[in-house]
């Protein structure tokens, strides 16, 4: 079990789908979401969760690219991902 529910990237993705987080997704919106869940997420982790979940991972066939960068610091959910 992940420290942040089903994994912070997946939790953010699902929060966008449910309307808890509006797009474009930003670090500040992720911070507010984490605090609403009672998660004390380190600032350094919040800063990389979107960029790391956006980058194509070639080392794992099961890694999901949850987000797509639309501009500096702003992301949307990847419409081709099924969760």
What would your notes on this structure say?
It contains three helices and two strands, in the order αααββ. It has 83 residues and is α+β, with helices and mostly antiparallel strands. The chain has a single domain, classed as Recoverin, domain 1. A hairpin with a 2-residue loop joins strand 1 (67-71) and strand 2. The two termini are 17 Å apart.
Q: Outline of this structure?
A:
Helices cover about 40% and strands about 10% of the residues. It has about 80 residues and is α+β, with helices and mostly antiparallel strands.
CATH architecture: Orthogonal Bundle
- Shape label: globular
CATH topology: Recoverin, domain 1
Number of helices: 3
How helix-rich are the residues, as a percent range? 25-40%
Question: pLDDT below 50 for ≥5 consecutive residues: which ranges?
Answer: none
Q: Give the overall average pLDDT.
A: 86
State the order of secondary-structure elements, H for helix, E for strand: HHHEE
Number of domain units: 1
Taking all Cα atoms into account, the compactness measure Rg is 12 Å
Largest sheet data: 2 strands, antiparallel
Cα-to-Cα separation, first versus last residue: 17 Å
Number of strand segments: 2
Strand content: 5-15%
């Amino acid at each position: 079990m992940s420290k942040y529910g089903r994994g912070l990237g997946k939790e953010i993705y699902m929060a966008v789908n449910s309307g808890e987080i509006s797009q474009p997704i930003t670090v500040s919106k992720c911070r507010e979401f984490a605090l609403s869940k009672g998660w004390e997420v380190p600032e350094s982790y919040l800063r990389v969760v979107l960029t790391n979940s956006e980058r194509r991972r070639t080392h794992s066939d099961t890694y999901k690219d949850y987000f797509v960068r639309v501009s500096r610091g702003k992301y949307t959910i990847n419409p081709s991902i099924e969760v």
